[in-house]
Amino acid sequence: MAIKVLVLDDEPEILESLRRLLELDGRFEPLVTTSPQEALSLVAREKIQIIICDIVMPEMDGLEFLERAHSINGLVQIIMMTAYSSVDRVLTCLEKGAADYLMKPFDIHEVRKVLDQVVQRLERWRELVIEARRREINPEEVARPTSGRQRGESPEERLEFLEELLAQRPPDLPFRLLEWLEEEDDQLVRERILEELGQRLAQEEDERLLKLMLSSPQAYIRNGAIDLAQDLGPQILPHLERLARDEDKDLRKLVLDIAVQINDPRAERLLLEALDDEETNVRITAAEYLGQKGVREAIPRLEEMAIREEDEMARGVALEALAALKESPRAREVISLLKEEASPVLLHSFLKYLARFGNKKDLGWLSKGIREGRVPLARESLEALVLLLKRHGQRPSKGLLAYLTQKAGDLSDSLEVYLLLQVVAMGDQQAASSLAGELLNGPIEVATGAINFLAEYGTSEDRQRLETLARESKRPEIQQTIEDVLEL
């Protein structure tokens, strides 16, 4: 039977391209739509096993769709697509249960590779369950009640049956519980099963049960296994050390999700060793977590990753990890290289790195790049401007001030407006206050940025102006925002 694959993207050309590719493959039955709501309806009606979904869509953010689709069908495997999203956004999707990601424009071989890996995960889960049963069960000794009818119709009946099963302690108990958990829809019953599985994990002498849970296609089971293993702390590390060498790249990545929460040198060693993993997603995860944990031993390898790594997502994560670590001895080499070759995907991360390690010449390069349109006027570039100007005690050039003043009305994000006004204020406080006053008449997102700027950096006259506006404005959303900011 063909595997049903749902493709969701707001670009019809992308849908048609992927539809043809899936049909030619022969294993898949593609369903395509530009509507997130229609896609969710299809997930509820059809036995969808794989979804390919864009991260950036006008009607619904890809992350929201990911969470809503998993709430309907926890087993569905979701592959996220992006052309220019920040590294943070892609990583968040992966952390929330996405199976993998694809970068636009597509490479046909890469699409097939990712699909192959997802299909293998589904098949591997079935094989692991069969193998676990074979190793644990003596068919002559064990009668296995498996159906929902045998367990009970109501949650109360199923909880009662669960306690009876726990009292019997059959040899295949963990694997019965795991199968049950995959089918159970009552939250209270699921939590009780997970609680028992956590106790079993603490007693297991090998890693088979943990491997089975982490290999589940259902995000709820995988996340539950991660939480349970993290609670066990250093006790679980011997299992993790063996699983970190497993051939399953998804499993190796989940090992890192556990290790990052364990304060033990062995856990840090697992993260460091993962920087050399053959799988890109594993290296990406390791780099992100090493930055979070402040493992300075990783700095030389992260710098090498930022310079040599072929995958741009991996390079971006390495840059952000170095920025978090606040140390990069090869900063001049990295910056010189990336000034010439930073792509739109990599640029977000490079600007965070530049904000931390850039010098006065880099500030000039950034200012010129923004004016000439080579560097997008966005949150990351404005944050970098603010930090570099403050660190080096510089004032923005007249050309940059004129450009920012001209472009202020084009922004639609409150934080971007707030940052832009900060830059203008570093050159001319009066001009910044005047510009903020004009922006108060814009959409609420723009006005909110101006209100926050005037409240924090404005003069006493600016504050009085806001208080008057809070009383007299005919826009209730403006009045409420000012009251919240000024705590009136």
Index terms:
Rossmann fold, Leucine-rich Repeat Variant, five-stranded parallel beta sheet, 488 residues, mainly alpha, CheY-like_superfamily, Response regulator, 5 strands, ARM-like, phosphoprotein, ARM-type_fold
**Overall 3D form:** globular
Instruction: Give the overall pLDDT as a whole number.
Output: 88
Total discrete domains: 4
Would you state the CATH class of the largest domain? Alpha Beta
The count of helical stretches stands at: 27
Return the structural class. mainly alpha
C-alpha-based Rg, rounded? 27 Å
Question: What topology, given as strand order, has the largest sheet?
Answer: 2-1-3-4-5
Q: Give the strand tally.
A: 5
Helical content, roughly?
A: 55-70%
Strand content: 5-15%
**Beginning-to-end CA distance, first to last residue:** 64 Å
Low-confidence stretches: 137-149
Tell me the CATH topology of the largest domain: Rossmann fold
Organism: Thermosulfuriphilus ammonigenes
InterPro entries: ARM-like, ARM-type_fold, Bact_response_regulator, CheY-like_superfamily, PBS_lyase_HEAT, Sig_transdc_resp-reg_receiver
Protein name: Response regulator
Pfam family, one: Response_reg
Walk me through this protein's architecture.
The structure is a single chain. With 488 residues, the chain is mainly alpha-helical. The chain has four domains: 3-132, Response regulator (Rossmann fold); 166-274, Leucine-rich Repeat Variant (Alpha Horseshoe); 279-357, no CATH class; 372-488. Helix content is 68%, strand content 6%. The chain contains 27 helices and five strands. The chain has helices at 12-25, 36-45, 62-72, 87-95, 108-136, 148-151, 155-168, 173-183, 187-203, 208-214, 219-232, 237-243, 249-259, 265-274, 280-293, 299-308, 312-325, 331-341, 344-357, 360-372, 379-391, 398-407, 414-427, 429-439, 444-457, 460-472, 476-486; strands at residues 3-8, 28-33, 50-54, 77-82, 100-103. Helix 18 packs antiparallel against helix 19 and helix 22 runs antiparallel to helix 23 (414-427). The longest helix is centred in the first third of the chain and has 29 residues, at 108-136. It is globular, with a radius of gyration of 27 Å. Mean pLDDT is 88; it is low at 137-149. Keywords: Phosphoprotein. This is Response regulator. Pfam families: HEAT_2, Response_reg. It comes from Thermosulfuriphilus ammonigenes.
